[in-house]
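Subgroup meeting minutes
Present: P.N., E.W., G.H.
Scribe: E.W.

1. P.N. recapped why we're keeping a running log of single-chain structure predictions: easier to compare across weeks, and new members can see raw inputs and outputs side by side.
2. G.H. added today's entry (363 aa).
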Amino acid sequence: MDMPVRWVTASPSELTSSGYEGCIAQTSRAGEVDEMNNLILKERNMTEQTETMEQSLDQPVKTNDMRAPAPYSEVRSNTAISPQAGAGTCSSCGGNGGGGMNLNDTATISYVYAIGRVEARFPNLAAEKEFAQATGRTETAGKTDQQAFHAVLSQRQNRYLVRQLCWVLTIQGLETYLLQPRDPADIDMLVDAIRPMPAPNDIDVVIGLRGPIAPPDMCNGLMVPIIVFDQIYSFGRDELIKAIPKPEKLTDKQFGPAAEELFDRIMQMTDNAGATDEHRVLNYLAMRYPAIYAKAAEKYGGDYSMTGVEVIPSSLSSTRKIFKAIFSYTHRNTDFTEKFFVRVDATEEFPFLVTKMSPYYDR
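Output recorded in log:
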């Protein structure tokens, strides 16, 4: 608030008697007024500066304006650090031990128990030419193309070629999976799957984890899921049938044809990719449980036909994945159907038997 200026007026006698007291009073009051005016001006200047700063903050920031640097802690927390790509990785190799797949992801793990045939293929022209040069250094006189192919890959000095090839699992003639070993030492299983004298009924059983779809440059444009396998069983149909224990009540002439026919029937029934729990259970029983063949041969001897196979979840499943595999046999004359079942646990990668085969009754 501005104070009015008050002048002090004195008569000549007062000026004479008091000297310059009136002028001194006037000067002191004028100094106080000037000091208050200066304070008011300072307050006005501060208010105007504050309003100017608020208006500048409300205006949009132009692209050329310089932004204030963020605090160091904020920069670290908001910056995503990508992992460095490993040196020397080969996206087109068939045996890279997982091909950069992260098996510790939080995503649900999908197991595979597949029955098919393993084939080796060249991913590119360079690998094919390198294999041709290695073949020229190998003694292959008198051998077929398949025998020469197996001989070259079986040599220890040519293991680099095994890693360069892409390995395909075909099921019923269809390209279904690309194979990669989880452990690089298991690459020998792939070489063993290439037989020098293959037969039409040869079988390869692949057990492992199902991965993503292969990139186009991995196997010459073939885009199918990748299996990181832990085990491969390679054998022929005749070997499997001969390994099945024969029931005491049946002769070799009775059991042999029955086992062969049942095996062919089961192969048709297991026409699957082995990726679901139900298919894994059925494939496991076909390859590892000989009692189903013995039961089928026994029922054939009693004039029964095998009419169905079904896999359903068991009521005993709580914390584990337990399934019932039900086999149905129907009498050829009376149409009476008998059923038998087994329980299999398919929780982890390797299924196993829970209960042996026993009669099954519909509820």
